[in-house]
Each structure stands twice: as C-alpha cells, then as structure tokens.
Amino acid sequence: MFNSYDVLVVGGGHAGCEAAAAAANMGSSVLLITMNLQNIAQMSCNPAMGGIAKGQIVREIDALGGYSGIVADRSMIQFRMLNKSKGPAMWSPRSQNDRMLFSAEWRQILEQTPNIDFWQDMVVGLIVKAKKAIGVRTQMGYEILAKSVILTNGTFLNGKIHIGDKSFGGGRVGEKAVEGLTEDLIDIGFESGRMKTGTPPRIDGRSLDFSKMEEQPGDEKPGKFSYTGTNALAKQRSCHITYTNPEVHKILEKGIEHSPMFTGNITGTGPRYCPSIEDKIFRFADRDQHQLFIEPEGWNTIEIYVNGFSTSLPEQVQYDALRKIRGFENVKMFRPGYAIEYDYFHPMQLTMTLETHLVKNLYFAGQINGTTGYEEAGCQGLMAGINAHLKNNDQEPFVLKRSDAYIGVLIDDLINKGTDEPYRMFTSRAEYRILLRQDNADLRLTPISNKLGLASDERMDVVRSKEADLENIGAAFNNISFEPDIVNGLLEKLDTTKIKQKVRLKDLISRPQVALIDLVKVSKAIEELYEKYESELLEQTEINLAYEGYIEKEKVFVEKMNKMEDFKLSNTFNYKEIGSLSLEAREKLSKIKPRTLGQASRISGVSPSDISVLMVHMSR
Which of 66, 334, 418, 455 could be stapled to 459 by a disulfide with Cβ–Cβ 3.0 to 4.6 Å? Predict the structure, then answer.
C-alpha cells in the first residue's frame, strides 16, 4: 500500500508542517502522518503568532522559505509591533489570528505542495536497522519505510490532562494520547522526561461586558510577517484588557487543595514564564491584581481566549473566580482550562542538525525537545526538514550560528545547555540581538535559503532590490545636515538640547528623543525620501545609522567567536583519553559531541581551561 519515502514526518502540528513543507520543496518525497487531518497546525493554546523574540523567529522562518509567516498573515485579525518604546533590537511583531482560518490555510498550502502525501494514523514505534531509522510502525499495523524520520509529537506522548481532581489521557482535550512510542524510544536507549503546560478556559463572548474593559486595538498602520506579497490588514478586531482582583484571588486560594499542581498529581515541570493563575497568586502574593488579555478566536466566532488565566483548578472554581472579574459578571464558559503533562526527550541527545546521536536519520523537532510555543516548534521543524533532505542527498548539513539567527540561538541553547523546563525564546537569550532584528531577517537569511533551493530566485531579486534601496538611502542620509536656525525649534519641542553649529543627520537621530519622521517637518530632502521609498526602508536605515557603533562592536565580537567555530572537532574524538580535561568536561563532550570548538565552549560545565586544553591538544 505504501511506497518508501525520502522523509517521513510524524505529527501535523507547527513543527511537522514546516518539516514536511521544507523537505518537499527541496525535492524529497514526504509522507506526513498525523492522528487527525482535521487538526493540522491547530493553535492549541492562544490564537496568536509572534511576540517578544517569537516574532523575530517567524520572520526568520519566512526568510528561509517556511510558511508560518505567510499563514499568519493570511489568517490575521490584528497586528501589533511590541516594545516600540524600547530599542529596535527589542521590537517584536505579533498577530492575533483566526484559529480556524490558520489551520485551514496551512492545510491548503500543504495540499498544494508537490511531493507531500498524507496518512491519518498513530505512530507507535520506530523501525531501526543497524542504528539507523528506516521507518515507523503504526497503530493500524502498517510498517512504512523511509530514508529519514522526523518526530514532531507535541504534547501527545503519553499525554495526561488534569482538571481539578480529574485526570485522563489525551494529547489535547478531545484527542487521544500517543502510547507506545515513548517506551519504544526508551528501549532503544533514549532518555526522557516529563513536562507540563496549560491553557485557560474558553468563553462565550456574548456573555462579556466589554464596556467595562480597556480596549486594545491593533497598530494604526498594521504590518505583516512575510516578506512575500501577502496583504496587510485593511480592518482589525480589537482585544481587551481586564484584571483579577483580591476577591478573585480568594476564590482561587480556596480551590487550591483540589489543584493537581499542589496535590502532587502533576509531576512534570511547567513553563517558568507562563505560570498558571493559581501559581501566580502564590508566587506574587504581594500583588492584588494580574492583567488578563481578552482575545477573540477569529473573525466570525463568539469564542474568547482569556490570556493570563491558564488554570487546572476544578471547573466550578474556575467559573466562580471568572464571575468576579470586571466585565465577566455574567460569563458563560465553552470549556474549562486544563493542564497537560507529556513526555519529552532531553535535547542534548541531538546534534546541531536535530538528528539524534543514538539513531542516525532520526530527527526530533518541537515540544518533543522540551520547547514551548508555535514559533519555537515551527523553526525546529523547518531545520529538521532541511537537514533530513540534505543528509539523504549526501550534502553538507545546514546549521545556523548564534550570530546568524534567533533560530541558531534556540538550537544552540537546546543542544549545549539542555533544558529541564519548557524552553521559551526571549530577546535576552541572544547576545547579538542588535544584529538579529526583526526588520533584517530577509537580508540575513534569504541568500542562504536561495542557495539551499528553498527561497526562489524571484525572492532573491526582491532582496537585492531592497539592498540597493538601502544603499541609496544611506548615501542620501550622509548628505543631509541641519543648521541651528532650521532645527532648533523642533529640538526644543522634542525636549532635547539645541545645536550651536551645523550637524549631520546621523548625530541628530542618535538622540533618543529624535526620530527621522520628526525631521520631515524641517527637511525637504527627508520629505522627498518618504515620497520615494517605503517607510520600513527608511526606518531600517535610521536604525543602522543611529546604532552604527553598537552594530560594529557586535560584528567584531562575532568575528572573534567565528574563529573558534573554524576549529572543527571530529565526531569520533575520544575525550575520555585527555586526562587534563575536567571529569565533567569529559562526560559532557563525550555525550554532546560538539562539531566545533566554539560549540564546545558553550556547553554547560566545560570551562575556559578545558577549552585551552583542547586547543593545545588540537595544535599537536
């Protein structure tokens, strides 16, 4: 019934969809196996894409030829650029999305992608021969063969749902858990752990009084994620903000004795940066309120997502507490919030390509690696799909450095540091964040993607045109300067020091109070630039000019670190023979098998003196 495939992708979530699309677009024959074809790329938690650091990842996926940005744009109901009050390295695009439309758009894209076949079934085991994955076994009794296998099982591996004192098996509410696969992997020799995540109740929007809440509209000029020709929003739906209060907290506290987190029924580790509401009121006992974001689930639905109220308390406790929230006095629930526990596999068992050390041609991507979030999952799927195709065709692996992309930071963190709690990306994790801004992902990554065969030549033409425009704008900026009598009145209004002599544009926009758009009022040359070029290009040039010193410092540091990346380490190197290495270094290096000296230097437990020993040993 089944032919042998080049790449077999297990799981139809965000990681699985990106993995299947990437491998297929590069020319591999792909089979995507998922338990329910109606739930492809389902937004299991909040109906949103992007956010702090996550928005940068979506832009990077798009620049590399993935589809998350395109799907997000096509299903968007609101767009906001977060952190605009901070420096540009912190700016992060975020969209509110139509949950059903998001899934439908992903399915349509995959069905229109040549080389992808689909099969609805549960994978319960691997077929391994000579320490190499050659296929999978399914619940229906099929053995399906492939050159490479990518596991993207999300929260389904022995998933267990908790609501108060109740618990039952499931990968999502209403869907079965995957049983057998974890045990099969453990029998092979893999090390697993247990993690936990949660979701808030879903609410009937007709029962809410939005007039009692703060409206949160989208940006006046909404942006988008994709660098392709997707359309920006012509209209948007507002979100709303409300707050918990002491009365809400008192009800939640009374129900704590039935919380599976506090009774010990949940043993998995939950996300540090997205705690449940019952966890919040204990961790932040001094606070008498917590902010809640009231988010619509789509254009044509009354269903509401209560962001910030994730909980696994009994249904009645959830309901009673919600009714004490301003605007929720007459609330009706569609379903309660719940917690879910699931198996994951320690990511230090992987190489930088996301292939496992233990079994060749087997890749893990997404929450199976201990991450949380659609964006983190999607980028891992993309990288696994690319590398599975490359290895099948005897080509060099594709690895992004920390200085290349947030995706590189994420994978480097997972492989070299591991994680014992759900890993979430933040801008603070990236030491080169001024280089890895959301506005330049296409310039950084599209040329790489084009060489891989993912980004088309037409996309490269767009990038080259953008590069030319930026060069022309930069040259124009260098020729613009201001006399005191022209600009001092504006500077006074902007509450910044007046100038005493002629100054260059660069010096003015380096001031935090002054933006390029302000200077349109006093400069015909800048006004003409806004008429000729898109505002995003002018903003990007402004950033490059204003932060030129910081950018150059980061580039110098990257060059120094890249020299360590040039020192290649053999996969068969026997670290245990080097007695001058610390015991911990020998153990970690033997387990992780770093590709380069640079990677070795980032492994937790490997000290600078251990790196010096390695350098001496290599020089011999």
Answer: 455
Q: Across the chain, how many H-helices and E-strands are there? A: 22, 22
Cα 395 to chain centroid distance, Å, stands at 27
Identify the pLDDT of residue 168. Answer: 92
> Phi and psi (nearest 5°) for 139?
-65, -30
Residue with tokens 């691997």: 126
What is the chain's Cα-based Rg?
Answer: 26
What ranges make up the beta strands (E) of 445-565? 481-482, 503-504
What is the distance between the alpha carbons of residues 231 and 424, in angstroms, rounded to a whole number?
29
Question: In sequence order, what DSSP letters do the residues of 419-432 get, joined into one string?
Answer: -SS-B---GGG-TT
Reading the block at residue 537, the tokens are: 């290009």
In whole angstroms, give the CA distance from residue 508 to residue 523. 13
- Full DSSP string of 272-341: TTS--HHHHHHHTTT-S--EEEEEE--SS--EEEEET----S-HHHHHHHHTTSTT-TT--EEE--EEEE
Q: Which helix (H) or strand (E) holds 388?
A: helix 374-392
Rounded distance between C-alpha atoms, residue 231 and residue 455, angstroms: 19
3-state secondary structure of 174: coil
- Locate the DSSP E strands across 386-512: 481-482, 503-504
Give tens-digit pLDDT for 394-435: 999 999 999 999 999 999 999 999 998 999 999 989 989 999
Q: Which of 176-190, 356-370, 542-556 has the lowest mean pLDDT?
A: 542-556
